[in-house]
Amino acid sequence: MDYPDKMTPAQRAAAKAKGEPADRVACNPNIANGMARIAGYKISQFNDDPEALADAIIKTYRRFGADGARIFTDLFLVSEAMGAKVRKPEDNTADLEEPAINDMSEFDKLKVIDPYTQGRIPVHLRAIEIVRDEIASEVGVTASVVGPFTNAFFLIGVEKMTKMLLKDPESVHKLCEISLQSCIALTDAVLEKGVGVTISEPLSSCTVVSPKHFREFSAPYLKRLIDHIKARTGKLVIHICGITDPIWDDLVEMGVDVLSIDNVADMEKCAETVGDKMVIAGNVDPSAIMYAGSREDVRKATIKCAKQGLKAKKGFMIMSGCSLPVEVPIENIDAMMDTAREMGWPVTEEKLDYLLSFDKYKD
Predict the structure, then answer these.
(1) Residues with Cβ < 8 Å from 240, sequence gap 6 or more?
(2) Are 156 and 101 in contact (CB under 8 A)?
(3) Which residues have CB under 8 Å from 115's CB, separation 6+?
(4) In CATH, what number does 25-356 get?
(5) What is the pTM of this model?
(6) Which of 46, 92, 111, 345 could connect to 22 by a Cys-Cys bridge, CB 3.0–4.6 Å?
(7) Using CA atoms, how far apart are residues 278 and 259, in angstroms rounded to an integer?
(8) Closest by CA position to 202, among listed 158, 142, 164
């Protein structure tokens, strides 16, 4: 379906940056492997067929007109290249089967990756080239790089790593350091292709580790990765799942430009607290609303999200709180995008209150 936007995402972003008129608020539903349903593939095809992966990303962008196209399938590209075993279902998202090592006595088995030859990374790098050549003139194209702290968990296993935070901090730092070096290797390979990088750092969430442990174990390595990226490119986008408000100021200090927050985070509080220092993206519930809700539920949640995001002086983008479930109804994705078009630009509280005053979708 051709989308009725009057601007491409690139034109829209450029107009807003210059203070010129734009057609609508920025919106990116964060579709992830649901692109397989849009383009008619099985998710397993993305593991070894770069043309299939690229085609699905391109077709999904063309179908919805979202303000971003991201090359992403799962969180395990780097850990797999470092020796972890990954379960790859025929038609669902990959998951960790076995960590790269069983304990720190095997640490010497871990080597910094060669992104051009190891695991599924070459598939992604080729897909990046195809997507870049096809649509980068219209929309920002990025590739997702897992954060060094999260990847370190996958090297030795989540349960063991969690215990090591308390009992063996020295080993945690060793794992984070070699993890960082592999994340940098992937980052450099991505940037060489001429696209941007987004960081996914879910296990840095305060739902998983305390702010103290985040500052001790994650922050030093995340900051180095951020510095590395920002020295080579423009804005830096990061997504952290779960509760993040105790570390929002830390992320500001690290130089994060765009913070994507989970639906359990408070969008209004985030906008008020750090929205004068970074763009806030989020945070419509991907499960209860996008997957299980009606089109009107999606519409109302999208409007309420924008109403909260208005308080961010640096700006906001409407997104789902995390990657959408694979089977999310296509009509709900349409509802989110169409609601962004309803809002237009500029977005005002009065306009949003008016849109909330009536139901657009009547079943």
Answers:
(1) 201, 202, 204, 205, 247, 251, 259, 260, 261, 262
(2) yes
(3) 81, 121, 122, 125, 185, 186, 188, 189
(4) 3.20.20.210
(5) 0.96
(6) 345
(7) 7
(8) 158
Which residues touch 131 (CB under 8 Å, ≥6 apart)?
A: 54, 57, 58, 69, 71, 141, 195
Matching residue, tokens 């080239």: 129
Give 280-295 pLDDT, tens digit per residue: 999 999 999 999 999 9
Tokens 């219209």: give the residue.
138
Domain boundary assignment for the chain: 25-356
Q: Which amino acid is present at 242?
A: G
Contacts with 355 (C-beta within 8 Å, 6 or more apart), sequence order? 303, 339, 342, 343
Amino acid found at 140: G
d(CA 280, CA 248): 11
Determine if residue 110 is left, alpha or beta; phi over 0 gives left, psi from -120 to 50 gives alpha, anything else beta.
Answer: beta
Q: Which residues pair with 86 in a beta bridge?
A: 96
Residues 228-279 pLDDT 10s: 999 998 789 999 999 999 999 999 999 999 999 999 999 999 999 999 999 9
